[in-house]
Description:
The protein is built from nine helices and 13 strands. Strands 1, 2, 3, 4, 5, 6, 7, 8, 9, 10, 11, 12 and 13 form a 13-stranded mixed sheet that branches. The N and C termini lie far apart (43 Å). Strand 3 (57-66) and strand 4 form a beta hairpin. The protein is α+β, with helices and mostly antiparallel strands.
Amino acid sequence: MSTPSLSTLPVRRLTPRDLTACADLSENRGWPREEHKWGLLLSAGTGHGIDDPEGGLVSACVVTSYGPYERPELAAIGMVLVAERHARQGVARRLMRHVLDAVGSTPLTLHATEYGRPLYEELGFKTTGRAEMLRGPFRPSGPAPTVPTRPATAEDLQAILRLDGEVFGTDRTPMITRLPAFADQLRVAEDGGEIIGYAAAWPNMDTHVVGPLIARDTETAKALVADLAAHTDRPLRTDIDVRHEELLAWLKPQGLESWGFNSVMTYGIPDLPGDWTRRFAPLTVAAG
């Protein structure tokens, strides 16, 4: 029996039952399996994939939509992967065109590597920003931040959602309400009883990823990161908007090293909504 052409294989919706196949695909491309992150994305977002007739997945990606369910205001694309033996055959382009058709007029955003950016530019995405990936063991250096921080409680959730919606620019309740179960730590910063920032640290292989990181100012962001770091023995990872030069200049002497950059790209809008001055790091580059 002849093997079907890649161009005829259907794109289907992925579900949490596809988690192992998605993790296998990550591993096939030399990425960490990241099963914990795949689980969040497949439950909070919409997965799209192409099955390989010989088993596993040819390709996969996840789209996470924000705003009203009936009419999303923004969607983030992440985890765009093609199996090694099917690479450079137009599969990613076909999958992305399928996603563009599926979301209709909803504006899109994604974080692109240098390798993936040319394809996204061809499809009409524009680079609107950059993020620097940092990683390393946090070793406190210099004066400690003075903004009060503490573990978040269930009573803080509504205030966190209000702050997140204001800073992110649209409602992402389905994602943020999953944070207490997804993250190992969720902490808030306060000023006079008002929550002025929050951050999470969630497990990813041998590290803790810091994200989201939303804060009133740089000093508040520093305090949240230092608090998260004080309660883990793992190295930290995070992706910081390069416009936050002061935070980047503080993190590097604390032991975090630059591991590269990615491009923040948008489709259908000139820039991301919300207030970038208070948005320091995404929850994950795969979901914004």
